[in-house]
Design a protein that fits this description.
Pfam families: SURF6 (PF04935). The chain is mostly helical and 287 residues long. It is 70% helix and 1% strand. The protein is built from six helices and two strands, in the order αααββααα.
Length: 287
């Protein structure tokens, strides 16, 4: 088997070498590269490009170019000179002086502005005072001797009305006392005084009704109102007591629950501890 493989390889090598030799002969490639070999035969001819001559500058173009250059130079020199002028000759001291001058100018401007504004304000105040003085500032007073700020006073004898008493107990007590007084006068025989007081009170009631005031002199209505108020107070007291009781009950329930939870946690910890000890071999009753 080995001899057969060797023979096949030799046949392949011979075949490939014959192909290469054919190619070398076909392209006339020398078998050995000598230094004396002429290589130019195998290279292409160099095509050298013709150099174009540069266009000669005309005299007019040359003059224009020179003029442009001069303009550019003048601009550059002008910029340089302006920069040199800006920079003070004396250095830092000159700069400080310039800064001081600028600051002084600014402060003077501010001071002038403030003075101008103050003068304007003073002038406006003086004008307003003059206008106020010109106005007629006569004060008007009402019947109580207080200043009236409105332009029109509808009633000169307008006196502030006193508040109406609405206390039912007080009104009922007053009515009872008045009735007692009238009864005492009648029993004592002072009929004229009794009649005059009764007449006066009747007129007072009539005038109050005509003015639109609500009369609170009916003893039955006053007693009813007092009773109603008592029931309201009693009801509110009962509601408050019920509310307080509910809150106390709720608070007690919450405290009880909290105590139970704490006890449960303590018992749980204790049982866990006992179980661990029992596992380790300790003799504990119940575990």
């Amino acid at each position: 088997m080995k001899k057969q493989q060797q023979s096949e390889l030799l046949a392949r090598l011979q075949q490939t070498s014959s192909k290469f030799m054919y190619l070398l002969e076909a392209f006339q490639i020398p078998s050995k590269a000598d230094d004396t070999a002429i290589v130019s035969e195998y290279l292409l001819d160099d095509v050298t490009g013709v150099k174009r001559p540069l266009p000669k500058a005309l005299p007019a173009d040359e003059e224009e170019r020179q003029a442009r250059l001069e303009v550019m130079q003048n601009k550059i020199t002008a910029k340089h000179l302006s920069r040199q002028r800006r920079v003070p000759a004396e250095g830092k001291t000159a700069r400080k002086r310039e800064l001081l001058k600028r600051n002084l100018k600014k402060s003077l401007r501010k001071a002038n502005m403030i003075e101008h504004k103050t003068q304007q304000v003073k002038q406006e105040e003086a004008d307003s005072k003059g206008k106020i003085d010109k106005l007629n500032t006569t004060k008007t007073f009402n019947a109580e001797g207080k200043i009236v700020f409105s332009k029109f006073q509808l009633d000169e004898h307008d006196v502030k009305k006193k508040g109406v008493d609405t206390d039912a107990k007080k009104l009922l007590r007053k009515h009872i006392n008045d009735e007692k007084e009238l009864r005492a006068l009648k029993e004592s025989g002072e009929t004229e005084k009794y009649a005059s007081i009764k007449n006066k009170r009747a007129w007072e009631r009539a005038t109050a009704k005509t003015e639109g005031h609500k009369l609170r002199d009916d003893p039955a209505a006053l007693a009813k109102r007092i009773k109603k108020r008592k029931t309201q107070v009693k009801k509110s007291k009962q509601e408050w007591a019920d509310r307080k009781q509910k809150l106390e009950h709720k608070k007690g329930q919450a405290q009880k629950k909290r105590a139970e939870n704490i006890k449960g946690r303590v018992d749980q910890k204790k049982t866990k501890k006992m179980q661990k000890l029992a596992k380790k071999g300790r003799i504990i009753p119940g575990f």
